């Protein structure tokens, strides 16, 4: 058990809660985490398995969201291990043996030092302007030899597919552009995945292993399901970024239509290790 547990719930004055656009209390939060899990869990779990995580390990899951990764880890570290799952709004994370849930702001709230065998965060640091500072904090929270895994995105090449053409491609492109604008206005860098390994190395971690993953999203896919959910979740933000209610209705119809497909954004999964001191 780490020093941060149920009896020490923190983050009452979260430095990032007001800027993070994907509110866990929102009407579409459960849908968002459902689609994220469908989309990303297979890659995340495959990469985490490479660390050798197993019974007795002490793990930290940062920004646990809906809790799918925290639950996967908890199943593997028991008996004898423990998972601490944190979030600024942790209400969606289920309880399980071997799992502690805590309200915690990774930017400002305390973390135990030299405490964890494995730390994982997915689509968290790209949302934080203080991401390089947070990387140094995560390194210090790892025990010597402990492992870090970050899964992040890069939307640099995330554009409407040429095959769409016409109005479908146009309205989808408007949506993607508005989404990037919304994230940027909140302090996020949705291209950070492509340079995350560089920043991880600069924070003092070693043995860095990075993979890049993309796919094509078709009707009924988790990726397009996520984008449709986000169009509802972020509707006010998207309209403030220049979209109209008519364009939002239209892009939802486009993404639900038979035959529509679009390339995914890039996912970068980076494994690293704190050097033995």
Keywords, separated by commas or semicolons:
single chain, 277 residues, alpha/beta
Description of the structure:
It is built from 8 helices and 9 strands. The protein is α/β, with parallel strands linked by helices. The strands form 2 sheets. A 7-stranded mixed β-sheet has the order 3-2-1-4-5-9-6, with helices on both faces. A two-stranded antiparallel sheet has the order 7-8. α2 links the parallel β1 and β2 (82-87). The longest helix is centred in the first third of the chain and has 21 residues, at 29-49. The radius of gyration is 19 Å and the shape is elongated.
Q: Sum up the overall morphology in one term.
A: elongated
What string gives the helices and strands in order?
Answer: HEHEEEHEHHEEHHHEE
Q: For the residues shown, what is the average pLDDT? A: 89
Please tell me how large the radius of gyration is: 19 Å
- What fraction of residues sit in β-strands? 15-25%
Low-confidence residue ranges: 5-18
Q: Provide the spatial order of strands within the biggest beta sheet.
A: 3-2-1-4-5-9-6
Structural class: alpha/beta
Helical coverage, percent range: 25-40%
Count of DSSP helices? 8
The biggest beta sheet, please? 7 strands, mixed
Based on DSSP secondary structure assignment, what is the total number of beta strands? 9
């Amino acid at each position: 058990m780490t020093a941060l547990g149920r009896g020490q719930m923190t983050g009452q004055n979260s430095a990032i809660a007001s800027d993070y656009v994907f509110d866990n209390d929102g009407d579409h939060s459960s849908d968002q985490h459902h689609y994220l899990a469908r989309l990303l869990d297979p890659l995340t779990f495959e990469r985490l398995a490479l660390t050798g995580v197993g019974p007795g390990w002490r793990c930290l899951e940062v920004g646990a969201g809906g809790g799918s990764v925290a639950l996967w880890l908890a199943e593997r570290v028991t008996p004898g291990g423990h998972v601490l799952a944190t979030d600024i709004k942790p209400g969606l994370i289920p309880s399980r043996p071997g799992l502690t849930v805590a309200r915690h702001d990774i930017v400002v709230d305390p973390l135990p030092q030299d405490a964890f065998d494995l730390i994982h965060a997915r689509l968290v640091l790209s949302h934080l302007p203080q991401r390089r500072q947070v990387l140094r904090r995560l390194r210090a929270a790892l025990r010597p030899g402990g492992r870090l895994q970050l899964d992040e995105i890069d939307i640099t090449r995330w554009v409407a597919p040429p095959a769409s053409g016409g109005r479908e491609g146009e309205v989808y492109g408007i949506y993607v552009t508005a989404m990037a604008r919304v994230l940027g206005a909140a302090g996020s860098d949705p291209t950070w995945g492509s340079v995350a390994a560089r920043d991880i190395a600069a924070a003092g971690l070693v043995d860095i292993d990075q993979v890049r993953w993309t796919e094509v999203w078709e009707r009924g896919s988790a990726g397009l399901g996520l984008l449709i959910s986000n169009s509802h979740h972020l509707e006010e933000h998207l309209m403030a970024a220049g979209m109209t209610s008519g364009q939002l209705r239209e892009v939802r119809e486009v993404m639900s239509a038979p035959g529509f497909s679009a390339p995914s954004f890039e996912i970068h999964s980076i494994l690293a290790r704190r050097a033995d001191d």
